């Protein structure tokens, strides 16, 4: 199995003064809105237009859960097949993944099985 995500028992400089640090992935086919979802979560603003992600983009947000401060590192991956080997290298150490599909595209929904398999390996 995969090792546990990096966790600190108390606030420390390593985690930016937070109690916990978790890495999450946003994965799915190209054009499904992964970057827009990440932007909405981090900036609380809707992104009107977005270019395809090349490789991987990164965002972070600090949230409070049960009185503890948690820093979420969120990695937005490219959905195009040609970047698949590049984005796969960023999956290591992730605590979880948000799988994204386009509700109007059965093909992007069916592809989730492959994305999930990639995330688990």
UniProtKB/TrEMBL annotation:
<comment type="similarity">
    <text>Belongs to the small GTPase superfamily. Rab family.</text>
</comment>
<keyword id="KW-0342">GTP-binding</keyword>
<dbReference type="Pfam" id="PF00071">
    <property type="entry name" value="Ras"/>
</dbReference>
<dbReference type="InterPro" id="IPR050209">
    <property type="entry name" value="Rab_GTPases_membrane_traffic"/>
</dbReference>
<protein>
    <recommendedName>
        <fullName>RAB4B protein</fullName>
    </recommendedName>
</protein>
<dbReference type="InterPro" id="IPR027417">
    <property type="entry name" value="P-loop_NTPase"/>
</dbReference>
<dbReference type="InterPro" id="IPR005225">
    <property type="entry name" value="Small_GTP-bd"/>
</dbReference>
<dbReference type="GO" id="GO:0003924">
    <property type="term" value="F:GTPase activity"/>
</dbReference>
<keyword id="KW-0547">Nucleotide-binding</keyword>
<dbReference type="InterPro" id="IPR001806">
    <property type="entry name" value="Small_GTPase"/>
</dbReference>
<dbReference type="GO" id="GO:0005525">
    <property type="term" value="F:GTP binding"/>
</dbReference>
């Amino acid at each position: 199995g995969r090792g546990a995500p990096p966790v600190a028992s108390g606030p420390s400089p390593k985690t930016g003064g937070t109690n916990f640090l978790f890495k999450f992935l946003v994965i799915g086919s190209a054009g499904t809105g992964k970057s827009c979802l990440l932007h909405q979560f981090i900036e609380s603003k809707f992104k009107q237009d977005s270019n395809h992600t090349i490789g991987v983009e990164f965002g972070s947000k600090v949230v409070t859960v049960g009185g503890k401060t948690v820093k979420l590192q969120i990695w937005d991956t490219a959905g195009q097949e040609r970047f698949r080997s590049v984005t796969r290298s960023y999956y290591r150490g992730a605590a979880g993944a948000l799988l994204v599909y386009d509700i109007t595209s059965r093909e992007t929904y069916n592809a989730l099985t492959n994305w999930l398999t990639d995330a688990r390996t």
